[in-house]
């Protein structure tokens, strides 16, 4: 069993900051890519930021310069620092990990999601 548990969402005013965390636990052999996705009401889930196991990062154009993704491999944890938040950043943020389990299965796992609301 593998679990991804997110934390750090909430309500913030425009221009504010939030830091999301996602910890992976369970029968993990190795984690390759990790990332954050978001889904706004009535829209499809989209990639916000991704990071490889060698810490190469990529970002959606809409968040470049405002968001920073990082990871702590020793803790199997990925973070998303979100600055200068805008109302259009509102949505449910999901953590994703592409990993190999101790049983040898390679699979994508998802967290349960954490709500981020940017509003005055």
What is the count of DSSP helices, taking H or I runs of 4+ residues?
Answer: 0
Note the gap between the termini: 40 Å
Overall geometry comes to: elongated
Average pLDDT, to the nearest integer?
A: 96
Oligomeric state of shown chains: single chain
Overall structural class, as computed from helix and strand content, comes to: mainly beta
Helicity range: under 10%
Secondary-structure element string? EEEEEEEEEEE
Q: β content, as a range?
A: over 45%
Number of strands: 11
Give a verbal description of the structure.
It is a single chain. This protein has 120 residues and is mainly β. Helix content is 0%, strand content 60%. It has no helices and 11 strands. Strands 2, 4, 5, 6, 9, 10 and 11 form a 7-stranded mixed sheet that branches. Strands 1-3-8-7 form a 4-stranded antiparallel sheet, with no helix packed on it. It is elongated, with a radius of gyration of 14 Å. The mean pLDDT is 96.
Question: Helices and strands in order, then pairings?
Answer:
Blueprint: E1 2-7, E2 10-12, E3 18-26, E4 28-39, E5 46-51, E6 57-59, E7 67-72, E8 77-82, E9 91-101, E10 106-110, E11 114-118
Parallel strand pairs: 2-11
Antiparallel strand pairs: 1-3, 3-8, 4-5, 4-9, 5-6, 7-8, 9-10, 9-11
Give the gist of this structure:
0% of the residues lie in helices and 60% in strands.
Keywords:
mainly beta, four-stranded antiparallel sheet, 11 strands, seven-stranded mixed sheet
């Amino acid at each position: 069993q593998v679990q991804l548990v997110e934390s750090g969402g909430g309500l913030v005013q425009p221009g504010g900051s939030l830091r999301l965390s996602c910890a992976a636990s369970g029968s993990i052999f190795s984690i390759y890519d990790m990332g954050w996705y978001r889904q706004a009401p009535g829209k499809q889930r989209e990639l916000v930021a991704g990071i490889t196991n060698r810490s190469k990062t990529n970002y959606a154009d809409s968040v470049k310069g405002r968001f920073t993704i990082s990871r702590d491999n020793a803790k199997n944890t990925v973070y998303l620092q979100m600055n200068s938040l805008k109302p259009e950043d509102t949505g449910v943020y999901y953590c994703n990990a592409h990993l190999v389990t101790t049983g040898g299965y390679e699979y994508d796992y998802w967290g349960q999601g954490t709500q981020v609301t940017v509003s005055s």
